[in-house]
Amino acid sequence: MNNKIVGSIPNYLSELPLMVLDLDNNNFSGQIPSSLWNLSTLMEFSASNNHLEGSLPMEIGNAVILQRLVLSNNRLIGTIPKEIGSLLSLSVFNLNGNMLEGNIPSELGDCISLTTLDLGNNQLNGSIPEKLVKLSQLQCLVLSHNNLSGSIPAKESSYFRQLTVPDLSFVQHIGVLDLSHNQLSGTIPDELGNCVMVVDLLLSNNLLSGSIP
Q1: What gap in Å lies between CA 151 and CA 185, rounded to an integer?
Q2: What is the Cα–Cα distance from 64 to 100, expressed in whole angstroms?
Q3: Is position 60 within any domain?
Q4: CB 48 within 8 A of CB 73
Q5: Domain assignment of residue 144, given as a range
Q6: pLDDT at 173 over 50
Q7: What is the DSSP string of 68-87?
Q8: pLDDT in tens, 25-65
Q9: What CATH number is attached to the domain comprising 74?
């Protein structure tokens, strides 16, 4: 990390027994090798602030012990594959600052270990999946600066309720709920008043109406 390495991510890395792969703050370009997701030992993969391109493949669902995936500030396109729901150990998922489009897959709600979900600054559309509000360990949810519509889901919500999480070192920003700069409509749900861990609640630049609960 923190070098000026150029070129693509080498394919041979998928043949090494890597547990942590940190390529942050370089000049890597091209696509992430699909074979990398087949690494049975990989627990953390971070390659933020590069020039990576292409889309996330369905093979991402093979990285079943992955706990931390940070690919923010790249040039990733396409949709988030539904296979992401197979990553039950995933705690941090950060794709902020790419060019992703399409809906947020409801399968993300199957990632029961999520503490941080940051999909801000993309081109995502559709509604916020109801299943996300049932992620009991979620402490940071950033969906700002997209084209999301519909209402803010809160039915039977359990996120932002837990005062402690298994590993706080994985939580990037404790208590952040940022849904600003979208096209969300309807009222602010009363259930948000029960989110005891929310420190920063950002709902500006939407189409919300009604009163503050």
Answers
A1: 5
A2: 23
A3: yes
A4: yes
A5: 6-209
A6: yes
A7: EEE--SS---S---GGGGG-
A8: 999 999 999 999 999 999 999 999 999 999 999 999 999 99
A9: 3.80.10.10
Question: DSSP state, 188?
Answer: P
Q: How many residues appear in the chain?
A: 213
Tokens, residue 210: 């009604």
Q: Could you give the number of structural domains in the chain?
A: 1
Residue 115, both tokens: 């503490």
> Does residue 183 lie in a domain region?
yes
Residue 164 neighbours by CB distance under 10 Å: 8
Q: Rounded mean pLDDT of 84-103?
A: 98
Give this prediction's pTM: 0.92
- For 125-179, the DSSP string reads EEPPPGGGGG-TT--EEE--SSEEEEPPP-TT--TT--S--S-GGG-SSTTEEE-
